[in-house]
Amino acid sequence: KPSPPCNVHLRCLSIAPNLYVAGLGGSVPGYQDGKKLWDGFPYRNQEEMGVDLNKLLDPLMKSETSPLTEDDQLILMTHCGPTESSTTIIMDDPLHPIISGSTALYGLLCKPEMQSKVLMNIHGHSHNSFGELQFGNISVINPGPLMEGHFGIYTLSHLPASDTTNHSRWKLMSVRRFIVV
Predict the structure, then answer these.
(1) Which residues pair with 123 in a beta bridge?
(2) How buried is residue 163: exposed, middle or buried, by Cβ count under 10 Å (0-12/13-18/19+)?
(3) Which of these, 36, 22, 27, 142, lies nearest to 77 by C-alpha position?
(4) How far is CA 100 from its chain centroid?
(5) What is the chain's Cα-based Rg?
(6) Measured distance CA(59)–CA(65) in Å, rounded
(7) In sequence order, which residues have a C-beta less than 8 Å from that of residue 176 and are 6 or more positions away?
(8) Which of 129, 68, 70, 80 is nearest to 104 (CA)?
(9) For residue 102, what are the contacts with CB-CB under 8 A and spacing of at least 6?
(10) What contacts 121, CB < 8 A, 6 or more positions away?
(11) Does the pLDDT at position 61 exceed 90?
(12) Percent of the chain whose pLDDT exceeds 90
């Protein structure tokens, strides 16, 4: 029997052996040429989003408080993605790009403990900036707006421990994006 849908905002849930999903909704303001184009919600600035990101992720990354083991990995679902990512820079006018990502998320994803624990960051928010990229060891994915027919199928595989690794790992095996018209 399938599990009922649930809100993952500020929550971490087990979805498979050694695989968790953690979520954070909301967005930060968008900027073009240093001027604010839109307000964020509920976050009025980058710092406010950083507080909630830390509230969600700090307990998961600190070994003394973390429910995660060395074998566990995390899918991070956020409404907006990391700043400076092609999945958050809106290039409708290449001479005047719109910056719509989170500097707080960018900073967290750079940390070594995040690079070893986070398998992927799936986000939305930047409708015209859909796509995928590698951010160190982390796959950053913006499938695009479902309301415009965009969606993705991401295949994960659980790999057993090997001679080179003492623990099992999840791996993103394939990315398929679709647009239904």
Answers:
(1) 78
(2) exposed
(3) 22
(4) 14
(5) 17
(6) 6
(7) 152, 153, 154, 155
(8) 80
(9) 28, 46, 49, 50, 53, 78, 80, 81, 82, 83, 88
(10) 75, 76, 77, 78, 81, 82, 105, 109, 135, 138, 139, 140, 141
(11) no
(12) 82
Strands 73-78 and 89-90, sheet pairing: unpaired
Q: Is the peptide bond before 42 cis (omega within 30 degrees of 0)?
A: yes
Whether the Cβ atoms of residue 28 and residue 80 lie closer than 8 Å to each other: yes
Q: What per-residue confidence (pLDDT) applies to 3?
A: 74
Q: Where are the alpha helices (DSSP H) in 62-160?
A: 103-110, 112-117
Q: Where are the beta strands (DSSP E) in 25-168?
A: 30-32, 35-38, 73-78, 89-90, 98-99, 118-123, 131-135, 138-142, 150-159
Q: Is 141 exposed, middle or buried (0-12, 13-18, 19+ CB in 10 A)?
A: buried
DSSP-derived 3-state class of residue 52 = helix
Mean pLDDT within 168-176: 92
How far apart are alpha carbons 122 and 40 in whole angstroms? 19
